[in-house]
Amino acid sequence: MARSPSVSLCIRCEQSLWPGEVELCPLCAVAVRVEYRRGLRELEGNLGRWSAFSSWLHASAR
Ligand SMILES: [Zn+2]
Question: Model pTM?
């Protein structure tokens, strides 16, 4: 199928044709948002653990 400039594939599932400048189909847009929030929560947890590790390291180095 020839791609016209006004229609593009979803960059995530590469299946849904979607008109205009949108890069994600609605399903993938929701999924990406959920993954993003989960990633942020994991990052917060990791930063907390790194902070605790850093505190422990400085305390045990004395
Ligand atoms: Zn999609």
Answer: 0.58
Concatenating the DSSP letter of every residue in 8-62 gives EE-TTTS--EEETT--S-HHHHHHHHHHHHHHHHHHHHHHHHHHHHHHHHHHHH-
- Mean pLDDT in the chain? 86
CA–centroid distance, 53 to ligand 1, in Å, is 40
Ligand 1 centre to CA of 31 (Å) is 9
